[in-house]
Amino acid sequence: MTSTQRVPLHDDLDVGDLTQAIENFNRYYIRLPTVQKLSFTTLSVLDTLAHGGPKRLTELARTEQISQPGLTQLVTRLERDGLVERRPDPTDGRAVLVHITDRGRKIGQVRHEDRGRHLLPLIARLTPAERRAIAAALPALSRLAELGAQAGR
């Protein structure tokens, strides 16, 4: 879709504008400096486990969109670093579930706090109306993310 094409979802929302705004924000947001330098894939796996609970390797590979051998290597490194652990799947003794550890969860918490610290001065530069508009959009954006997660299952 080019920037001149419009794909209205409803009269009050242009999907192209929404997509562009999210992409612009994500470009900045995912590159915010952090205390710990970890790869995007590592952070994504930790985030998936922190918010979605334990997962099988096959499910994580699908969710993270990486090959199973690549994910297995990553999980092995994360396990060695004490960020995740493998435990038997209680529903299938042949399989294992990857669980995030407290240390792995702490990385996500620190990253969240770091991002908040970087955003605060920028938010302070917004007008009160802009801040209210963002606050008003938060429930809808959260719901959109939930719907996307449900559709991906």
Automatic annotation (TrEMBL):
Transmembrane segments: none
Entries under InterPro entries matching the protein: HTH-type_Bedaq_tolerance (IPR052526), HTH_MarR-typ (IPR000835), WH-like_DNA-bd_sf (IPR036388), WH_DNA-bd_sf (IPR036390)
One Gene Ontology MF term: DNA-binding transcription factor activity
Domain HTH marR-type: start-end pairs: 1-143
Pfam families given in the database record: MarR
Designated name of the protein: MarR family transcriptional regulator
Source organism per UniProt: Streptomyces cyaneogriseus subsp. noncyanogenus
